Amino acid sequence: MDGGAFGAGKAGGAFDPQAFIRQPQTILRFVSWVFSIVVFGSIVNEGYVNRVDEVEEHCIFNRNHNACNYGITVGVLAFLSCLLYLALDAYFPQISSVKDRKKAVLSDIGVSAFWAFLWFVGFCFLTNQWQASKPEDNPLNEGGDAARAAITFSFFSIFTWVGQAFLAYQRFQLGADSALFSQDYMDPSQDSGMPYAPYTNEEDATDAVGTYQQPPPADAFDTETQGYQTQNY
Known about the structure:
mainly alpha, Butyryl-CoA Dehydrogenase, subunit A, domain 3, two-stranded antiparallel sheet, 7 helices, about 60% helix, elongated, Synaptogyrin, transmembrane, Marvel, transmembrane helix
């Protein structure tokens, strides 16, 4: 945007909900938010099954509770992260400090890249444990659709978070250019500790030299002294 830094307008402008919703990062955050709900919701609701002769329920992913705990934890934290950065995006145009905007964009890059990595690990982990699951551990094939949904949307989440990191990086590049001369700048004329004299016009300097008169020679004083006669009383 013109007149701003790091992809936002000048601070203090009115909040426009329609423009905010149409922003690419807002759309990706909302999609990631939905994907995270699908992942942890599928595991919480149908991710635990048991045999006919058992009472205790086990994780559907090869009875590995770490797999279910990982999917739920990553899903819930990603859900909260999306809400946090949606709120930050809405407040971002009100941030007047260029340094604070830079910190927000850098945190967006780091968090988005980190969550993309976590979703990649989660996708590989859940897929591996689902393939290692034994049919006799779930003879009724309960929760199969939920397990596949968790794996699928874990895979999709990788790309949505990578997209957020890419958009944040673009905002950082845009902000680095637009804020190049906008921070820590001081007008030299306002600096009271200037080590040099102020600029003088050449014509003024010429006039000053022209009006300068040299002092009379020392002989003039001697002549006057010789012409003076003392009187004796």
